[in-house]
Write a structure and sequence with these properties.
The chain is built from 20 helices and 23 strands. By secondary structure, it is α/β, with parallel strands linked by helices. The strands form six sheets. The protein has an eight-stranded parallel β-sheet. The radius of gyration is 24 Å and the shape is globular. Bound molecules: beta-D-glucopyranose. The site of beta-D-glucopyranose (BGC) has 10 residues, from loops.
Length: 610
């Protein structure tokens, strides 16, 4: 079980997938013709379901987005300052990574108070202001809710760890461990011996070492899936659920539109504490790779999800639950929606498409497979696709070949916005920001990059500050030193420069988002693959909706020209006149027939059939 460092070397996929699921296992010219952009947003938004169904959700890492007070760290007022940019891009909702008070061991994913804002990021009043300003611009605010664990500095844990008789003792997962000299105790367990006791089993922390930490005051170990400063809550105790739901209500009452649920498949652990099977090999942190069948995706979690959904649904305005769900396959993903009943999460993330392993190759066949499965195997639930986040090497580097990255980034964006999916993007993805991994261990901020160096260099590379313009520190901060250095390419890769260039990646995103926002076909049209077996070209049609024309999408996944026929034989499409809506290949701009189209290397083409 390796963490994401693999990306840097073998370019494998999602680091967390390894924790939770792997267990099983030359800038071209963008051309746009106006026809798709004519309608107003309002006219297309009628009657096609709750707001989140076709939303563009944009992830913001508050530390890295915009510093408003010159301390080198981004903050909430900085985000508020950038809402006009987000509105202009076409974003419907922002998900803000944890901004609660936190010792910041895991940069906010170690929460010490769920009902407040870390002074580094501002105040609750600043959050209220951000929510209100977002509302003015039709941008909803989603918070990151970390329910698997708290910080070890949360008062709940301080109480819990103070004595075995404290009323909160059972709020966390405690165990007496085993006698170090007992039978079957392994050498690995012995590495973590304290006062003659060893951890009760072989479970490892995804961030290195045993998942069990000894506390002398209670003579017990507590369980932590992540850093030892992130003790796991005991979800078998109903008081924990109540306290966590209360924390969620605190923010729902203040007007947040929902939550992204962090590491949600790991809420429960096997009550028998069975050893996890060995998966072979040693990970970057020096621990044996395990199949995490007893610490992730346990069926018990689904009852909690159903109760959480019911709680959230009591609020008006279609509040939404998004899950960070690294899962082994589409069948497992379906369970997180509640299958046919649709009574769990509205939007568990489909990590299979964007972080699908096979070294995240740009492979038309596997993309087709996952897009099709999301369309046909989720009982009509709404898929949520995503290619990028704050935990993984940027898609630019994972999918790029080093030569055609600009076009490959356009292919990913085309898929994100022209499939029948809710779209989740990560700050800077729209600019083509690159992963800037530290080159010296002493510069690393992410603890796993320090303990795992040099095999695991941590996640700093994808978290560098947002690049706004070509001024010092890219307009991110006035501080003498920013918390992470701005990536060296900021003079050319930045919002201001790309806004001025009609052919930029940023404008490609804007055009795609506007098209989708305004075209009922792209929002709701049935999606049918065109050539099911073509290994080089991914093509599909969206059947016309409400009298609007059908839309055809084709992308060349190879470095060679590909000639294809795009006649949508399996789909219910009438008309034979084709016009180009958007392409990055000038030669395709005048396309008039679907019969014989030659797509240049890595070209994307979107057309309308009338
Ligand atoms: C977050 C990570 C974090 C981990 C532990 C993940 O799902 O995205 O950034 O380190 O959970 O909270």
């Amino acid at each position: 079980m390796t963490t994401k460092n693999q990306h840097h070397h073998t370019s494998s996929s999602g680091w967390l997938r390894h924790l939770t699921a792997l267990a099983f296992v030359a800038l071209s010219t963008a051309c746009l013709s106006g026809n798709a952009l004519g309608q107003t947003a309002e006219s297309a938004h009628q009657n096609d379901g709750p707001w989140w169904k076709h939303a563009v959700v944009y992830e913001i890492y508050p530390r890295s987005y915009q510093d408003s007070n010159g301390d080198g760290i981004g903050d909430l007022n900085g985000i508020t300052r950038r809402l006009d940019y987000l509105q202009n891009l076409g974003v419907d909702a922002i998900w803000i990574a944890p901004m609660y008070p936190s010792p910041q061991v895991d940069f906010g994913y170690d929460i010490s108070d769920y009902e407040n804002v870390d002074p580094k990021y501002g105040t609750v009043a600043d959050m209220d202001h951000l929510i209100a300003e977002g509302k003015q611009r039709n941008i909803r605010v989603l918070l990151d809710m970390v329910l698997n664990h708290t910080s070890d500095k949360h008062q709940w844990f301080i109480d819990s760890a103070s004595s075995r008789t404290n009323p909160k003792h059972d709020w966390y997962v405690w165990n007496d461990g085993l006698p170090a000299n007992g039978p079957n105790v392994t050498a690995y367990q012995k590495r973590f011996e304290h006062e003659g006791r060893v951890p009760p089993n072989n479970w490892i922390s995804g961030f290195g070492g045993s998942a069990w930490e000894w506390v002398p005051a209670v003579h017990q170990f507590y369980y932590h899936k992540f850093y030892k400063q992130q003790p796991d809550l005991n979800w078998r105790n109903p008081a924990v659920e109540k306290a966590c739901f209360d924390a969620m209500r605190f923010w729902l009452d203040r007007g947040v539109a929902g939550f992204r649920l962090d590491a949600i498949p790991t809420l429960f652990e096997d009550t028998q504490l069975r050893d996890e099977p060995d998966a072979g090999g040693i990970n970057a942190q020096g621990d044996p790779n395990l199949k995490d069948i007893y610490t992730s995706n346990l069926p018990d979690v689904h009852d909690v999800m159903r109760r959480m959904r019911a709680m959230v649904e009591k609020y008006p305005g279609n509040r939404v639950l998004i899950g960070e769900t690294y899962l082994p396959n589409t069948a497992a993903l379906n369970e997180w929606y509640g299958g046919e009943k649709h009574d769990e999460l509205q939007l568990p993330m489909d990590m299979l498409l964007g972080f699908h392993g096979d070294h995240d190759k740009l492979d038309a066949s596997s993309f087709r497979k996952f897009i099709n499965e999301a369309e046909t195997q989720l009982y009509g639930s709404q898929p949520l696709f995503v290619f990028d986040n704050h935990d993984n090497v940027r898609s630019w580097d994972r999918y790029g070949d080093g030569v055609h990255n600009q076009q490959i980034a356009r292919i990913l964006a085309t898929i994100l916005f022209t499939t029948r999916s809710t779209a989740l993007m990560w700050e800077g993805e729209e600019l083509g920001m690159v992963t800037t991994t530290p080159t010296r261990r002493e510069d690393v901020k992410d603890p796993i990059g320090i303990t795992g160096w040099p095999k695991e260099k941590g996640r700093d590379g994808e978290r560098t500050p947002m690049q706004w313009d070509s001024s010092k520190d890219a307009g991110f901060s006035d501080a003498a030193k920013t918390w992470l250095p701005v990536a060296p390419d900021y003079k050319t890769v930045n919002v201001k420069t790309e806004e001025a260039d009609p052919n930029s990646l940023l404008n490609w995103h804007k055009k795609l988002i506007a098209m989708r926002r305004n075209d009922p076909t792209l929002r709701d049209g049935k999606q049918v693959m065109i050539d099911d077996t073509n290994p080089s070209v991914l093509s599909y049609v969206r059947e016309g909706v409400a009298g609007n024309p059908a839309v055809v999408v084709a992308m060349n996944f190879t470095a060679q020209p590909q000639t294809v026929s795009l006649e949508p034989k399996q789909a219910n499409v009438s008309g034979s006149t084709v016009t180009t809506l958007l392409t990055d290949a000038p030669s395709l701009q005048e396309t008039t027939s679907l019969q014989k189209i030659t797509l240049p290397p890595y070209a994307s083409w979107i057309g309308s059939i009338k």
